[in-house]
Design goal:
Strand content: 15-25%
Protein name: Family 1 extracellular solute-binding protein
Pfam family, one: SBP_bac_8
CATH architecture of the largest domain: 3-Layer(aba) Sandwich
Radius of gyration: 19 Å
Distance between the termini: 43 Å
Organism: Arthrobacter nitrophenolicus
Order of helices and strands: EHEHEHEHEHEEHHEHHH
Shape: globular
Number of strands: 8
Largest sheet: 5 strands, antiparallel
Number of helices: 10
Number of domains: 2
Keywords: Signal
CATH class of the largest domain: Alpha Beta
Structural class: alpha+beta
InterPro entries: SBP
Length: 234
């Protein structure tokens, strides 16, 4: 696997996950679709037509905001972000349709309640079948945030040897290949990639990854979440 994906001592990377803005392609043509997240709240035709989050407890939601706020880095700004960056966050919440508890985004898309929203790449194919909708994704010119799902030993475990055996088994090319095929994921194990669904492999081969300073994000994400939830999320 690509050694840059691992920290070299604690975590073992397993799967690459693109964090995407997806839209109902049965209703919106590619030419009429948003080209970036910021289009959602700056263009009238998309206002109230996208699902916006009502909490930031998920990694997907946090990565969406990492991708947006990173563009507005200002070391002299509030929590390292310029006033313009925080204005974008404010507009995101003011112009979106709040997520509905226990209601899948794809169900809302299928019913016509909304047309678009955030989604990790691996769920799309399955949700399209389950809800009988077709979704296309937006790749902004700056690229998309890429998450790497990983596995690690729990500190202090009394079953270190068994845990290590599980990690070696689960991260093996054979198991990861089967996992990729069943769950439409993109494994980082190069041997497993040969078993992944071809459309997934092609998607990631052409995908532009957003250049994000993850150290900066990690240092600030907790404070960003607190600020967003207290000041903008209503």
């Amino acid at each position: 696997m690509d050694e840059e994906l691992a920290d070299g001592e604690t975590y073992w990377p397993l799967v690459k996950q693109a964090i995407l803005l997806g839209y109902n392609s049965d209703k919106i043509s590619k030419d009429a679709a948003p080209q970036d997240w910021t289009d959602l709240w700056t263009k009238d035709e998309f206002k109230d037509r996208y699902e916006r989050v009502t909490g930031l407890g998920t990694a997907t939601a946090q990565l969406v905001f990492a991708g947006i706020l990173s563009r507005y880095r200002d070391d002299s700004g509030d929590l390292g972000i310029s006033d313009e960056g925080w204005k974008q966050v404010e507009q995101y919440f003011q112009n979106g349709s709040p997520a509905v508890a226990k209601t899948d985004l794809f169900a809302r898309i299928a019913s016509g309640e909304v047309d678009m929203g955030q989604m990790p790449s691996s769920i799309i194919a399955d949700r399209e079948k389950s809800f009988n909708v077709n979704v296309e994704t937006v790749i902004p010119s700056v690229g998309v945030p890429l998450a790497v799902e990983q596995i690690a030993l729990v500190k202090g475990t009394e079953k270190k040897e068994q845990a290590q055996k599980f990690i070696d088994w689960f991260g093996s090319a054979d198991v990861q290949g089967q996992f990729a095929k069943q769950f439409n994921s993109m494994p980082v194990n190069e041997g497993a990639a040969a078993q992944a669904n071809p459309e997934v492999v092609d998607f990631f081969a052409d995908l532009k990854q957003q250049d994000i300073d993850w150290e900066f994000v990690q240092e600030n994400m907790g404070a960003w979440v607190e600020k967003i939830e207290l000041e903008y999320m209503t």
